[in-house]
Design goal:
This protein is globular. The protein has one domain: Vaccinia Virus protein VP39 (Rossmann fold, 3-Layer(aba) Sandwich), CATH 3.40.50.150. It has a seven-stranded mixed β-sheet with strand order 3-2-1-4-5-7-6, with helices on both faces. It is α/β, with parallel strands linked by helices. A hairpin with a 5-residue loop joins strand 6 and strand 7. It binds S-adenosylmethionine. The site of S-adenosylmethionine has 19 residues, from helix 5 and strand 2.
């Protein structure tokens, strides 16, 4: 029997993510780090008024982009830009671009300010509108869904046409909003086009790969 060393025994997506990001934090632009920290503190103090993802989920997405050398990302639900900063920070290393959709005027503007302060504006295209009714002229490697949970299936169906071969779709709130996500879950686990799994990171993620 092969005796595993502690490092290998402990290997799981979350542990690996934390290790890599801890290492990468040393090289992350200070302005980017400062904006992330300030949004995290605000969320902690005020009860997450802008519904930002957990840091753990941000780290997971960041690492996913780096590992798979992802270049084009579409996000539905920018809010004030916290997840967008994690996504775009990784895209600075792959020379990619984030397209992110937000329907709320004030949050759209706040995200714009945060992206500039984080020094990431060159890697982000903000789209103002109500998904899926937003015109998009690009193809994506990664789709991140974090808007109105009961509408996630409609975003998925509409934006599947904009996904590249072997593209990845990640939807947040799989565990925190089980009821609202039921139709989405049923669809992804019964689709011949997708290979899906649940990842117990943050509030739960549905991870699907186009096959
Ligand atoms: C959970 S928050 C997004 C949080 C963000 N991803 C983060 O972690 O920083 C959801 C956002 O989606 C926006 N939203 C909801 N439905 C939308 C739609 N159909 N199209 C565009 N934006 C939408 C809301 O206005 C809200 O700001």
């Amino acid at each position: 029997m092969v005796k595993l060393m502690p490092y290998y025994r402990n290997r799981n997506p979350v542990t690996n993510t934390l290790k890599t990001v801890t290492e990468r934090n040393r090289t992350m632009n200070k302005k980017t780090q400062a904006v992330l920290k300030s949004l995290e503190e605000e969320a902690k103090e005020k009860g997450n008024p802008y519904w930002i993802i957990s840091r753990e989920t941000g780290e997971f997405l960041n690492k996913l982009i780096l590992e798979k050398n992802i270049k084009r990302v579409l996000e539905v639900g920018t809010s004030v830009g916290y997840s967008g900063i994690w996504l775009a920070e990784a895209l600075t290393h792959t020379d990619g671009k984030l397209y992110t959709i937000e329907s709320h005027n004030e949050r759209f503007k706040m995200a714009n300010k945060n992206f500039k302060e984080a020094d990431l504006q060159d890697y982000i295209i903000q789209l103002k509108g109500h998904a899926p009714d937003v015109e998009i002229h690009d193809m994506f490697d990664l789709l991140f869904l974090d808007a109105t949970k009961i509408e996630h299936l409609s975003y998925l169906i509409a934006f599947l046409f904009h996904m590249k071969k072997n593209g990845i779709i990640v939807a947040d709130n799989a565990l925190s909003h089980e009821r609202e996500m039921k139709k989405y879950k049923d669809y992804i686990f019964n689709s011949d086009q997708l290979e899906s799994k649940l990842i117990e990171t943050g509030t739960g993620l549905y991870y699907s790969k186009i096959i």
